[in-house]
Amino acid sequence: MNHFGYKGGVLSAEDVGLPALAARVGTPFYCYSRATLERHYKVFAGALPKESLVAFSVKANGNLAVLKTLALLGAGADVVSGGELAKALAAGIPAERIVFSGVGKTKEEMHQALTAGIYQFNVESEPELLALDEVARELNKRAPITLRINPDVDARTHAKITTGTAETKFGIPFARAREAYARAASLHNVEIVGIDVHIGSQLTELAPFEAAFEKVAALAKTLRADGHSITRLDLGGGLGVPYENNNMPPPDPAAYGKMVARATDQLGCRLIFEPGRLIAANAGVLVAKVLYVKEGEAKNFLILDAGMNDLIRPAMYDAHHEIVPVKEPVPGAERVVYDVVGPVCETSDLFAAGRALPELKSGDLVAILSTGAYGATMASSYNARPPAPEVLVSAAEWAIVRPRLRHDDLIGQDRLPDWLG
Ligand SMILES: *Cc1c(COP(=O)(O)O)cnc(C)c1O
Fold it and tell me: Is the CB of 240 under 6 A from ligand 1?
């Protein structure tokens, strides 16, 4: 459920009409709903065993205002870089609720995270383990660690967001786990606290999660028998969201919570979750203006003022996003088939091919739905286009939470060497 809907004939975020926002902010822009973020967080956290840590995946949406919204509800953060760690801390997420994931942590990032005193490092390889031990020794600290285990389970999602099969770069192979834990136990400046697993994103079935969690639970028993202290299980993120109205909805958090309990209850571990998309995707829309309607030889093109630099998911993952007119269409309005594209000079700058929409004209506003996750965080200034600004709505209030960069801001990022010209 989300708080976007037609009110008084226009698409609104909570109590704020998007045309009024567009008039104030300009297009394109991202609009997030605080009530939706809060609802998604509460529904998910409420479905999990008490004492669980819900560490929001900052890479899904790193806006400080979004992070603060979640921090106020008690959320932690899952970060994958020093930059994300700094953002999570700046948003008021306490270090003891921050976990650090990712295959390529640098020693500088390890130093930063150890100094901050984060809750745990999810270590993804033996070389990384040795590096972390070294940095912790220099700081005279012990780094709390889990090892990310690759359970070799197919998440049955898009190939580019599958992470738990043997072919991907993520984690330590299941068969090598005992060896890797023994290695970790031999190091003085890391402290084993648990096991980590994350098999992919946008999972629409529970079965792959269950297969992975059962493997992890069995491993926990083995590792305990080997003498390791396993008190935490980090079960990652990955629960999918409905992007299309007409397909099967992904499993709901309650069913996920029950399955988790079934797989892990007997271990008495503290559970950690790293949801990103589930919390943020349907809490945001990208509002764009139709620049031109172009009648091609074979197709009609709806050319928007938002492009793949603002939202890359369709180009990168063949992602489907619903696109709706901001002005409420009359019931039964006739539909026209469009290729909905952006202005960027790439053929892949295509939001939707062959999409039937109510007829639109130049100047009309559209909203690209379910773009609160992996939208703004993946934006770039390709084609020297300032990425879409971000707005957060709360009931009848709204604020620009990331302004649009001016051309001078973009130009100011470059430097001319004095020996040039
Ligand atoms: C991306 C990622 C997540 C979040 O995934 P969602 O599908 O957005 O829930 C969680 N954990 C790790 C390690 C990730 O890389």
Answer: no
> Are 375 and 57 within 8 A, CB to CB?
no
Q: Which domain holds residue 338?
A: 4-31+281-411
Pair (108, 237) in one structural domain: yes
Whether ligand 1 lies within 6 angstroms of the CB of 277 is answered as yes
Q: What is the CATH number of the domain that holds 208?
A: 3.20.20.10
Cβ proximity of 79 and 85 under 8 Å: yes
Q: Are residues 229 and 111 in the same domain?
A: yes
60 pocket-lining for ligand 1 (C-beta < 6 Å): yes
Pairing relation of β-strands 300-304 and 323-325?
A: unpaired
Q: How far is the CA of 359 from the centre of ligand 1 (A)?
A: 37
78 lines ligand 1 (CB under 6 A): yes
281 CB near ligand 1 (under 6 Å) = no
Choosing from 66, 125, 198 the residue with most ligand 1 atoms within 8 A of its CB, the one to mutate for a pocket test is 198
Residues shown for the chain: 421
Which residue's CA is the nearest one to ligand 1's atom 10?
237
**How many angstroms separate the CA atoms of 220 and 231, rounded?**
9
Residues 124 and 17 in one domain: no
Q: Which of 248, 298, 345, 396 is catalytic?
A: 345
For the CA of 60, the nearest atom of ligand 1: 8
Q: Measure the CA–CA gap between 373 and 208, rounded to whole angstroms.
A: 22
Quote the ligand 1 centre to 72 CA distance (angstroms).
21
Helix (H, G, I), strand (E, B) or coil at 158: coil
Whole-number Å distance, alpha carbon 57 to ligand 1 midpoint, is: 6
Domain end: 273, 294, 322, which one? 273
Is residue 345 flagged as an active site residue? Answer: yes
Contact status, residue 32 vs residue 63, Cβ threshold 8 Å: yes
| Burial of residue 11 (number of CB atoms within 10 Å: 0-12, 13-18, 19+) | buried
Predicted model pTM: 0.96
Query: What is the full per-residue pLDDT of the chain (421 aa) written as tens digits?
Result: 789 999 999 999 999 999 999 999 999 999 999 999 999 999 999 999 999 999 999 999 999 999 999 999 999 999 999 999 999 999 999 999 999 999 999 999 999 999 999 999 999 999 999 999 999 999 999 999 999 999 989 887 777 777 777 777 889 999 999 999 999 999 999 999 999 999 999 999 999 999 999 999 999 999 999 999 999 999 999 999 999 876 667 789 999 999 999 999 999 999 999 999 999 999 999 999 999 999 988 899 999 999 999 999 999 999 999 999 999 999 999 999 999 999 999 999 999 999 999 999 999 999 999 999 999 999 999 999 999 999 999 999 999 999 999 999 999 999 999 999 8
